[in-house]
Structure formats: structure tokens, C-alpha cells
Design goal:
It is a single chain. This protein is α/β, with parallel strands linked by helices. The chain has two domains: 320 residues, TIM Barrel (Alpha-Beta Barrel), CATH 3.20.20.30; 75 residues, no CATH class. Helices cover 38% and strands 14% of the residues. It contains 14 helices and 14 strands. The longest helix has 17 residues.
């Protein structure tokens, strides 16, 4: 990356990117069979990851959520059995071994009540000194709902209706006024006294990741951060423009809604080294069983006898009454169109089933030497594709160590990233210097 003045000096960029660390829990990106992988339940693993992100001056440390073990063809999906701790307990513990980094929990609005959510997030905000964040997610999934009293009763079209009501009820409980909190909606009713004083931030920072039209509208209505899957340059620019337009239509300043896409980084001494390492990681992420599980979810049928390192299945897909995989967000795409596109791609590029699944489901965002990665991250940011990145990794807890040690200093040198934490709460950190 070429030399550039440090942030705040004449000629330095006016905007600086935001970085966050995402611990997704156990899924296809997590290579928990790697000998270097740590215990997915041990506090020491999470402490290392969070302290590494704080050493890199990241904005927040972000935990995923799993409410029920997934099932494939009616059986427990064994590739996911490695544990996922409760976010509130883990983040509360992490608040004692970190000082400035935000602490974000993914919590579902469909299955929890406003009073417990307001108290839990308010408590985390107090314990951390104003560093709590809530990744607001929704569900209409009856399978997941089986673990909860209400079950999966919620119509798909109403998932954001309840989410809006839950947030409104929580806001009433977080309000500084001493009067009793009250809210009545279609799905949520509340009347009672707040259990704790108002949180230091007033309310936690809100993160939202819906990508449907309804999800985007919900995001610009409530969120401080929109967590995006659109990490490419052109798709990122289009998404950012859409969010800006929706925010303006909703009466919000677009600068009050940060867009942070997920990104995965693979580093090497050279671009060639990094590409080879990315290939190795991809095939570790998508083993034979995982490749077949992804294919089964699209074909809608049992493919366990199929050779994952051979050609794509020559049978046609169909949509079963019960999804092959339960507990995972179901794609709304036409499986026949998806299979047709996959076959064309496999024929064009010479893919086996497994190598195609690696290309589709395990392709990293940035691959190269630290200088190459930092330069490309900055270029997409400068082009307006995002306000920064939420960084995920295949390896817990050390997967971001090299990024913090080798990429962050280059971004600081070019003026694209902060060199110290400013004071204040997480919200202050996210919007420091906003005009």
C-alpha cells in the first residue's frame, strides 16, 4: 500500500472504516477439526478472540446465535456438534477482560419477551460501561420454535411486525422517565416498571441483517448498523445506494446507518501463497459430507450415496413438504433454476460437486499478501461500497491474529483506520466525527 498521511493530517481521508469481529459459532466456515482450533465452548477461546480484536481497535466483537441443533434428513447434523455458549453470559464475562470494544449479541425477537430482552441488554450495557449491541434477528421457523413455548406460530410476513413491536416495548423499558412502561401491539403487550436503570447508551446499538425488501426497510427504520452479505465492490455500491435511498425515504440521514458487509481474509507472503492457502481452507471447510449436505438442500432429496468428488447429480430437484435441512434459513430461490445455473457453471469451469460447493459457499472476500488485501479493502471502502467490514474467520480463536498484526497497521498508515480508541460509548465510537 502506498505511503499516505496519517488520519487527521492534511490530505488524509475524511472517512475512516469500521472493523468488527464476527464469531459465527459452528457452521460450514468453522474448521473445528483443524489441530490449531480451540475449544468452541471455552472462555479462553473467546477471550483470546475478543482481546485480539480490541488490540486491533475494532469497533465491536459480535457473536452469532443458535437456538436449536440443526437436523439433516431427520437426524442430528453431526458436523455442527461443537457447542455454542449463551451470548449474554459470554459477553458479560468478556466485559471484564476488555475495555473499549463493543460487545454484540445476536438475539431473536420472535421467541423472547421484551421485558427479558430489555433487562438483559440493559444489564450488559451497564456491566460494559456502554458497549452493548443487539443484532436483531427474526424467525418464523416452527422447527426452531419447538424449543419455545409459543413455537413457530409466527406467519413469515409478520416476522418484522413482531420485531418492531418488541423493539418499541424495549424502548419503553429503557426510557429515562420514571413512569410505568406501557406498549400494546398485535403480538406484544407490556405494562410494568423497568427492572433496572436506563442503560448508559440510552439503548444498545442496533444491528440488523435482513436482505429482503421488507428486511431492508426494517433495517433503515431501526438499525445503527446494517450487516450485509454484499461484500463485492459493485454489489456493495448498489446495496449502499439502496440503503441510502430507503433511509432518506424513512426520514433518516443516511450517514446514521452504517453498512458493514461480512468479509473473510486469507493472507500469504505472496498472492500465490494466499491463493493456495485459500484453496486448502475451502476444502477443509467443505468436506465430502458438507458438500453433499449443501447439495441435498437444493436437490431436496437424499444424495448420501453420491460421489462428492464426481460430477453434479443428474437427477432433477424437487421441493419436499419438509425441508431436507431444518434449523437453517431456507432459500426462496427456485431449486430448478439454481441447479441449472450450477450445472452450467460446473461444465464451464470443470467443477466437481465438491469443488463447486467450495467455490459457492467458502470463497473468501480478500486473498493476497497483507499489502494486497489492505489495498483492496481500502479501494472498496473509498468507492463507497461499505463503511467497513465485519471480519469472520475459519479458525477459532486465532484466525484474526495475522489480520490484526499485518493488515490493520497498513490501513492505519494509509489513514483508513484509527490509531487509537476515542472516548465514550460504543455508539460514540461508531459515529465519532460524523457531520
Amino acid at each position: 500500500m502506498p505511503d499516505a498521511p496519517a488520519a487527521g493530517e492534511p490530505g488524509s481521508p475524511r472517512r475512516q472504516m469500521h472493523l468488527a469481529a464476527f464469531v459465527e459459532g459452528v457452521n460450514h466456515t468453522t474448521v473445528w477439526r483443524d489441530p490449531a482450533a480451540g475449544d468452541q465452548m471455552a472462555f479462553a477461546s473467546f477471550r483470546h478472540a475478543a482481546q485480539t480484536a480490541e488490540r486491533g481497535l475494532f469497533d465491536f466483537f459480535f457473536l452469532g446465535q443458535g437456538l436449536r441443533m440443526r437436523e439433516q434428513r431427520g437426524e442430528l447434523f453431526e458436523l455442527d456438534i461443537a457447542g455454542r455458549p449463551d451470548s449474554f453470559a459470554m459477553l458479560a464475562a468478556l466485559s471484564e477482560v476488555t475495555d473499549r470494544i463493543g460487545l454484540a449479541a445476536t438475539v431473536n425477537t420472535t421467541f423472547y419477551e421484551p421485558a427479558e430482552l430489555a433487562r438483559s441488554f440493559g444489564t450488559l450495557d451497564h456491566l460494559s460501561g456502554g458497549r452493548a449491541a443487539w443484532n436483531v434477528v427474526t424467525s418464523s421457523d416452527a422447527f426452531t420454535g419447538g424449543n419455545f413455548r409459543r413455537g413457530g406460530y409466527l406467519p413469515y410476513a409478520d416476522r418484522y411486525v413482531r420485531a418492531q413491536e418488541v423493539l418499541a416495548a424495549c424502548a419503553a423499558l429503557w426510557a429515562p422517565a420514571p413512569a410505568a412502561a406501557s406498549f400494546t401491539g398485535r403480538y406484544v403487550g407490556l405494562r410494568g416498571e423497568p427492572a433496572i436503570p436506563p442503560p448508559p447508551q440510552g439503548r444498545p446499538v442496533l444491528i440488523q441483517a435482513g436482505d429482503s425488501p421488507d428486511g431492508r426497510d426494517f433495517g433503515v427504520a431501526v438499525a445503527d448498523v446494517v450487516f450485509s452479505r454484499h461484500s463485492g465492490r459493485d454489489e456493495g455500491i448498489a446495496f449502499r445506494r439502496d440503503i441510502d435511498a430507503r433511509a432518506t425515504a424513512a426520514g433518516r440521514d443516511p450517514r446514521s446507518v452504517l453498512v458493514l458487509p461480512i468479509a473473510r481474509i486469507v493472507l500469504g507472503e505472496t498472492g500465490r501463497d494466499a491463493a493456495e492457502r485459500a484453496r486448502e481452507i475451502g476444502f477443509a471447510q467443505i468436506g465430502p459430507e458438507r458438500a453433499l449436505s449443501f447439495a441435498e438442500q437444493v436437490w431436496g432429496r437424499d444424495l448420501h450415496d453420491w460421489d462428492p468428488d464426481g460430477p453434479l447429480p443428474d437427477v432433477e430437484p424437487y421441493v419436499p413438504d419438509t425441508p431436507v435441512m431444518q434449523g437453517r434459513v431456507q432459500s426462496k430461490a427456485d431449486p430448478r433454476a439454481t441447479v441449472a445455473a450450477w450445472r452450467a457453471r460446473a461444465e464451464r469451469d470443470g467443477h466437481t460437486l465438491r469443488s463447486l460447493m467450495v467455490e459457492i459457499y467458502a470463497r473468501p472476500t480478500f486473498v493476497g499478501s497483507p499489502k494486497e488485501v489492505a489495498t483492496e479493502m481500502a479501494a472498496r471502502f473509498d468507492a463507497g461500497a461499505c463503511d467497513g467490514y465485519v471480519l469472520s474467520t475459519h479458525l477459532m480463536p486465532t484466525g484474526l491474529d495475522d489480520v490484526v498484526a499485518e493488515v490493520v497497521p497498513l490501513l492505519q498508515r494509509s489513514g483508513h483506520f484509527r490509531s487509537s480508541y476515542p472516548g465514550g460509548t460504543l455508539r460514540d465510537l461508531l459515529f465519532a466525527g460524523a457531520a
